[in-house]
Design goal:
Together with LptE, is involved in the assembly of lipopolysaccharide (LPS) at the surface of the outer membrane. It is a single chain. The protein is mostly beta strands. It folds into three domains: 8-210, lipopolysaccharide transport protein A fold, CATH 2.60.450.10; 413-599, no CATH class; 609-771, no CATH class. The protein contains six helices and 47 strands. A hairpin with a 3-residue loop joins β10 and β11 (141-150). The chain starts with 7 loop residues before the first helix and ends in a 21-residue tail after the last helix. The relative contact order is 0.08.
Amino acid sequence: MHHLPRHRHHAIAAAACLAVGAWPSAWAQTAPAAAEKAPVIVEAQEVRARPDLDAVAEGDAKLRQGPLEIRADRLSYDQATDTARAFGNVRISRDGNVYSGPELQLKLGTYEGYFVNPTYFFSRTQAGGSASRLDFMGKDVALATDGNYTSCPRDGSGEPAWLLQTRRVRMDLANNEGIAEGAVLRFYGVPILAAPVLSFPLTDARKSGWLPPTTSVDNKSGLQLSVPYYWNIAPNRDATLTPTVFAKRGVALGTQFRYLERSDEGSLTFFTLPNDRLTGHSRDSLGYLHEGNFLGNGFYKADVTRVSDNEYWKDFPGDYPSLLPRLLTGDAQVQAPVFGNWKTYARVLRWQILQDKVNPIEAPYDRYPQVGLRGTQRLPGGFEFGMETEFNRFTNPNDITSDDRIKTDRIPGDRWHTVGSLSLPLVTPSWSLVPKFSFNAASYHLDKPLTQGEFNGRRQFSRTIPTFSLDSAWVLERDATWFGRDMHQTLEPRLYYVKTPYRDQKGLPKFDTAARDFNFDSIYSDNGFSGVDRVSDYHQVTAGVTTRMLDAQTGAEALRVGIAQRFLLSDQRVTTDLDETKVNTQSVSDLLLMGSTSFWPQWTLDAGVQYSPEFSRTTRSLLSARYSPGPYRTLYTAYRFKRDESEQAELGWQWPVYGQVRSGKRSTEGQQQCSGAWYSVGRVNYSLRERRVTDSVLGFEYDAGCWIGRVVAKRVSTSRQDATTQLGFEIEFVGLSRLGTNPLKVLKDNIPGYRLLRDDAPTEASSPTAP
């Protein structure tokens, strides 16, 4: 049966209950079937033994059975009862875990016995503690009394900064359950988490129960307190119910249900705030994602997100993070193999648009439905044939026609198109030549007649546009030396010829068509538009060259520089101009230049420039640099410019401001000192054109050695007049768990080169995928 990934907060809850439970768990694991059959070996300065009866060892005594090793001042082993007794400086080690105490008695076969006043250190978490007594009641059951756990130093200099204590813990390994009585987590002597009775899993397996509470603050909702409950329904199904109190809005409930089957998986997320005191009405959201496979390569998917109102994305920005938070998808699709590389597919795509009174947006058309067939086929003689034929019904989203400020002259309709190509790729290791003939054919049936162009006054019409292209590329290589390093240099010129005749397309609907961004990929394309409804009348040659410097030993790219430009052989009449009347008479296009290097290990530099020969000025540019001289030290800056549209500067960083920076490793048993080091983290995006900060993240991290504190503020502009500000904070008890709002995702998503403090130490449970 497939298993869901482990729930991160659930793993934290398990550790927070009582990490001392790892002691008997690790002890029981020392006796797999192979180890039980292993002989008992006793060594010491003095050994007295009676064959087949017993043995007594004194002076640096050691007993080994398989991976289990016991050291003590005095050891005895009674073969009749299979009992080992150890006295004085008893020390047990296995897989880096160390246990010590004054007295141990254990039946090796049945694992019954006790350990008096043990202390322990676990290599995985680099933390440990002590207990007054451990009683072993078989291989699967153990009882710990007066146990504690911490990753702070226990050198007698004072109370540890944080300490997890419990009165008694019973561990049942067979049922993967531990029951803790009187568990208290203290931080500088102050109890911050407590439970009279607490049940938790002894492994990373999921278990139903309450998870640690989380809190956050933002300027829209005020203080927020959430107390999640995790429900482990089955190995392949679970749910999380999250009651949340918003100081300004009221009480809400969030629900997430996940499932994982052999060929299907999905999740359902629902949030409801029955009575928002700020707006006077209910606030709701629904998210559903399902994916599955059938017939080998068959695939189907449903992805739906819906919210209750237009302001939802501003008031609850973290619920459904997206690059387009105002454009919510409703997408259902299926595709099935037909034969070879051919497949058929069907899709329904409907949008929800979250309109803004000040800044309305125009949404894409709904596709209701989309049905098609596509594939490629190799033909005799080295030819390759590819084709896509598809029917679409395009309609306007409901939000378009209900808002007077949005254009309503968009014509819905049907379109059946076929796009195909026949090519003959000639490819060698040093050069390639690809002649290709392609065509774009479309037939339209519109709800209203057109008002301009060749098809003016008609609702039904069709057109076919052919294209011929010839793509030629070379790869030249040589050995070189650059700044004393052996390098491998390439020179990669490329020529691309395109010929597409002119067809009048003025006034045609633009169902799925937009102008391509002008960059190093699109400059070598045969059409300046994405989609089907527009085809550029190209007669031009694109010439470009790229050179790369590769490290001769590792093959890593140290430098890349490129240049490319189009040369028009005739005027272009189908352009990206909005009124579709402007003719492009330029003999050459804008010049593209790009470069990147990481030749110096501490630096990463990138640059891209679009230069207009017609106006002798830069049209667009991007410059960025990242400096990372060591662990937890990174500076990132970028400048983005697009003439007459935007100009932005960005700065991001993670940098220590006080104290000694650590490597992140703790190699000694509990000797990590709890001394402090402060780090500043942040990112600021400033619009030079609007003279304002558009987005920003600012925070501080404090690494105290055995605990880490984080405070992070994030501000996102939702319009020129409005912004959402969120405050997150967290305490990470190293080797145990995290409590707070988990702002780490904000730091990772927003700060290039950000590195998690102690990222080489375990910080959370793993999340394997289903087998």
